[in-house]
Design goal:
single chain, 372 residues, mainly alpha, two-stranded antiparallel sheet, globular
Length: 372
């Protein structure tokens, strides 16, 4: 009898949480439609009919999902709104699930997880709703890309590798930024799986990514001037040169920090006080590598580029904050570290010791090569 009552309470609690998240998703989508706008020749109809220009036409997951519904008379705009709400709701649910996976439930209760999830959406709102530099553009793939990233993060924590691979494939069909997911797998499992199994999965992820992005670019993009949907020039100008010009103005650097909700500053403060677990420090190094890549193929002042980075950084800061207020280490329960780590693990250890210098040297070298 008591078990039945407990189960009913759990069910009611879950329904209440889902209703709250659904309301948050509807409000977020409504605000996006009010403050956002469609870029020229990139309306929902262009995505639905695969007539958008590269690299946007190469992001095919949402148009493929939309098309069966369009057969029943739903407009492209209605489908955009509906699925944006659905994926925002799913993102909130995934954030909630991630925070509930922390080792000590008492430190991250349902209420705490709900609040942290909603705040995570507000952090995204600072990019998508309150921006005057191109981030308010309405693209159907933005929210799904963040959802798939957080989903893959949770599946890695839960050690559900088969579902992780399936989710990675969907993320790759949605957007080429799924490379960051490969980095997540590497830092979370390079020293936790047997070398043969780890290298097999890592190779498979790279092979799937290259095969899918190249095939899409050739078939859907019709060989448009981009590499797997990744572009390095706009209007004949190297993107790296545009980004360097933007960053040379100190006001822009502060603006960038503000649009990232000062999360990098919060991370640095928590790291100084040793509240960030070692695994999350490795994840942040992956984010730094991804940012270095964005310097060459992502327009920095288009803050949407940072949304996925920002969400992982937000999760890391939440973990560090919980460690600080509880004065003890709270983290996800991952498998024990395998002492017979492969050579790649040793290389990663070397990289972590000299990360900032190596990243800076790599970016500077790439910039010099482009402008030689």
């Amino acid at each position: 009898m008591s078990n039945s009552i407990t189960e009913k309470k759990e069910l009611y609690s879950r329904i209440e949480i889902d209703c709250l998240f659904l309301l948050g998703a509807v409000i977020f989508n409504t605000m996006r439609m009010i403050f956002g706008y469609f870029y020229q020749n990139l309306y929902p109809e262009n995505f639905l009919n695969f007539t958008a220009h590269a690299p946007f036409v190469n992001r095919i997951l949402l148009p493929v999902i939309w098309n069966p519904f369009a057969e029943f008379g739903f407009s492209a705009l209605d489908l955009f709104k509906f699925f944006d709400i659905i994926f925002t709701f799913l993102l909130l649910r995934e954030l909630y699930n991630v925070f509930m996976l922390l080792e000590k439930p008492s430190a991250c209760s349902k209420i705490c997880s709900c609040v942290a999830s909603i705040v995570g959406l507000l952090v995204l709102g600072n990019i998508y709703l309150l921006d005057s530099m191109q981030s308010a553009y309405l693209y159907p793939f933005d929210i799904p890309s963040i959802f798939f990233l957080v989903l893959c993060y949770r599946l890695l924590v839960e050690r559900r590798l088969l579902l992780f691979v399936v989710s990675f494939i969907l993320a790759t069909l949605n957007r080429e930024s799924s490379t960051i997911i490969i980095g997540l797998f590497f830092v979370m499992y390079h020293n936790r799986l047997q070398p043969k199994k780890f290298l097999s999965i890592l190779f498979f992820l790279f092979a799937i990514y290259l095969a899918l992005r190249t095939s899409i670019n050739l078939v859907i993009g019709k060989g448009a001037p981009s590499t797997m949907g990744i572009m390095f020039k706009v209007f004949g100008i190297w993107i790296a040169n545009l980004n360097l010009s933007f960053l040379t103005h100190y006001k822009n650097c502060f603006y960038l920090l503000y649009k990232m909700s000062f999360l990098p500053l919060a991370y640095v403060l928590l790291a100084i006080h040793k509240k960030i677990p070692s695994l999350h420090k490795d994840i942040v190094l992956v984010l730094e590598l991804y940012m270095a890549m964005l310097f060459f193929c992502g327009i920095i002042y288009e803050m949407r580029c940072f949304a996925e980075v920002l969400m992982l950084l937000y999760i890391t800061v939440v973990v560090g904050f919980l460690n600080a207020i509880n004065n003890k280490e709270i983290d996800f329960n991952l498998p024990e570290i395998n002492t017979s780590a492969p050579v790649l693990s040793q290389l990663w250890i070397f990289f972590t010791r000299h990360a900032q210098l190596l990243i800076f040297t790599g970016v500077a070298t790439g910039f010099l090569i482009l402008n030689y």
